[in-house]
Amino acid sequence: MLIRREKIKELAETVGIGKAGITTAEPLDYMRERLQRRADEGRVTPFEEQNPAARLSPENLLAGCRRIIVLAVPYANADSVAPGSEESPRGLVARCARGADYHLNIKSKAEQIVSLIKKETGSAFSSRILCDSSPLLERELARNAGLGWIGENCTLINPDYGSFTALGTILVDRDLEVDKPLEETCHDCRMCRDACPTGAIEAPFMMNPYRCLSYLTQATGTFPREFRPLLGNRIYGCDRCQEVCPYNQSAESSPFSEPSFQLFPAEPLLIPLLTMTRREFDLSVGLTSAGWRGKTTLQRNVIIALGNSTDQAATRPLARLLENDSRPLIRLHAAWALGQIGGPKARFVLDKSRQNDPETAVREEAAFALEQFV
């Protein structure tokens, strides 16, 4: 496949890809020790490939893989609450989840690039497109392809667009001219580490996902009690370590950003989300990258955010959930939130739940919430 590196980047721009780079498909054996350490220390999440060796070789995903084209698309700089809108309480949604699902967007653009390359070269070749769901070390491949460097918060930082970018890869079984990795790196400013609400960045380039609010908002099940107050009003993801990064402060706007319309507002009203129907979810949040986690996990986060708001307007809808919702997970978090808000109505329904709820965990949470009144 004879095609210049510059031509591939030109084709990427044609379909709306902000940055593209090319790297080899050689196994990333130098990362093996670091991956094994993460596994040994229990810092591998259920979202990831559990076998470190499977993350190192592109050959496992495409037989005969020779090169990898790495794509980066900046997220839109979506505004927060519209001017003049003062209704509350409101939540906070990470930038990656406000617009249309970036996985589908990048996959579509990557398919167009593959078609254009085949047309340009007049030859067939094998390829495989991956976006965020592959076992490969996507950010390390992007670094090798010259798209940026790894920050202390483990994000890829592009010199033009900062770290608010979505990544995708195209594996191909042909030779291409490769890019050189960038030499730039973080300069130990500590801003991301100091800003993290939970101390999840335990050391430079070392993230504990089980303390990371972004991970915790996506993990199913009971949200750890110790981290609930630290969640604040976040209901999906957490951008804090990126918001304070100096490289994001000076990042340029990009004509290649994702569409700026918001399917999931940056700061949505919280109480209406408690009664969102399945259809309403599917036509809004379900079309974003937050949709994969489902309505129950999102509503669990909304309940915690309402508890943190201490807004008395949330007492009645939370009480209805505690008394009537069929999902124990929702009742448990509603009990906690009512304990944070307080008041006679909250005390009354919590006492009923402490005595009568059929689930032991919910009764125990109601008892804990009542202790907050003392």
Structure, explained:
- This protein folds into 2 domains: 5-84 and 100-172, no CATH class; 209-371, Leucine-rich Repeat Variant.
- With 374 residues, it is α+β, with helices and mostly antiparallel strands.
- Helix content is 38%, strand content 11%.
- Helix 12 (294-309) runs parallel beside helix 14 (328-341) and helix 14 packs parallel to helix 16.
- The termini are far apart.
- The chain has helices spanning 5-14, 32-40, 102-121, 138-144, 191-195, 213-218, 228-231, 240-243, 246-249, 271-274, 278-282, 294-309, 315-324, 328-341, 344-356, 360-371; strands spanning 19-24, 67-74, 92-93, 127-130, 149-150, 156-157, 165-172, 201-203, 206-207, 234-236.
Q: Spatial order of the strands in the main sheet? A: 1-2-7-4
- Bulk shape: elongated
Sheet of most strands: 4 strands, antiparallel
Task: Return the average pLDDT rounded to an integer.
Answer: 92
Domain module count: 2
Which terms summarize this structure?
16 helices, two-stranded parallel sheet, 11% strand, elongated, 374 residues, four-stranded antiparallel sheet, Leucine-rich Repeat Variant, alpha+beta
Produce a short descriptive summary.
By secondary structure, the chain is of the alpha+beta class.
Topology:
Elements lengths: L4 H10 L4 E6 L7 H9 L26 E8 L17 E2 L8 H20 L5 E4 L7 H7 L4 E2 L5 E2 L7 E8 L18 H5 L5 E3 L2 E2 L5 H6 L9 H4 L2 E3 L3 H4 L2 H4 L21 H4 L3 H5 L11 H16 L5 H10 L3 H14 L2 H13 L3 H12 L3
Parallel strand pairs: 3-10
Antiparallel strand pairs: 1-2, 2-7, 4-7, 5-6, 8-9
